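Let's do one together. I've listed all components of the complex below, 505 residues spread over two lines.
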Amino acid sequence: MRKNQIVAAVTAITLGAALASSPAAFADEAFRTLDEIKESGTINIGVFSDKSPFGYVDENGDYQGYDVYLAERLGEDLGVDINYVSTEAANRIEYLQTGKVDIILANFTVTEERAEEVDFALPYMNVALGVVSPEDAVIESLDDIGEDDQVIVISGTTAETYLVKNNPEIKLQKYDAYAEAKTAFENGNGVAWANDNTEVIAFSIENEGYVVGIPSLGSADTIAPAVTKGNETLLNWINDEIVALGEENFFHADYEATLLDTYGADYEDTLVIEGGVAAGAETEAE
Amino acid sequence: MDIEVIRSYIPLYRDALLLTLRIGWQGVLWAFVIGLVCTLIRQLRIPVLRQLVTVYVELFRNTPLLVQLFFMYFALPKIGIRISAEVCGSLGLGLLGGAYMAETFRSGLDNIAPIQEESALSLGMSYLQAFRYVILPQAVTASMPGIVANVIFLLKETSVFSVISLMDLMFTAKDLIGMYAKTIECLTLLVVFYLIMLLPVSLLGSLLERRMRRAEFGN
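Okay, and this is what the predicted structure of the assembly comes out as:
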């Protein structure tokens, strides 16, 4: 092996590390202010494309769902066109930090860790974790999960973080996207699937043979729009908008338009947060 | 950059590196075996099998590994064929790599002028002797750069393993970013670990290429 090749190798490692860590590359202001968005005439909103009924693409190729219903209204009231950007759970924070989107409206649960990285607006939905399993082998408590059993989770979700933190002994099978996790679960690759309870309830309603054995796990959380850290003008505008929408009971209308078919009327008051005031959630979280 | 964060993530990356290497090398091994079998079938002009090799090579060279893995891992269980994620990974790499290796070996063999085989035969060598002592050494030399490139290509292709839930280097980095949002630390570690995995292969490859050159015709 020649000396200059070793030198080249070492240089490559150092250079790679230096490039990846160079603060200069990240120092630029990553976000667009409210005025800049209005001026450009288009807002970039990150939504899910495979999480029915919250954010998904319908048979005509249009974005639909509870989150998208809100996105449409935000765009309308801002007077700009919407450019939907499809996101995966694990890259929601990245998309905001790198300015690829102005707002994330992808069923984003508010957590302390995430609040250090992005700014959350007022909440518009309640959520907790849930665990769904096949009805012939129902998991009703985390203790039912055997040593060699695998639980399916989606990378970057609160379910993953919760299980990693509180039940590190449980083996997780991680997937990038909702669609893949669902297929893997249907194929029987795991004994259960842990996710937002809204999502697992929807799954058990839409697919025969599955039961939500654990309907609520961990603390009661909320879901809110998120903007890049420090983007105050946009954050304030969204907050004012959510309060104003509360006066016309907008989120109940949203529920009835997008979620009623899946969940029925029973979950309406449990799920919907109107005007950014999460009444029940805070006491439950204690 | 938070050194503490980096330190705490290193064991996870090390596990991912080991998994990536294990499956990656299994895949490379499969690729060699499949590539050699295909080359033999083509070289010996075995009917029917020869046509099947062509179909196989074109099928796997012209579909992305991502699609192949999706098919094996998500579609086959629907018809009752269940393959574990790790086997899917190494088999997928092996099948993809086998197609590339077959082409590389063929180009190495094509590189040798027919007169060499004719000369060897006219000197009284059997066909197998001619292949073993005259053609093969030169063919391996000629294919060496392509083989090394294939190996590196295959090891890099492991980065799509996240779709079948294998915690390779790429998925580990994405997963940690999704959970704790330490982007710079995670991506730096990712670059460093890929280099740790692949630089020795590159260096070893160029060393081998130089050593093999002695079988080159005319040198």
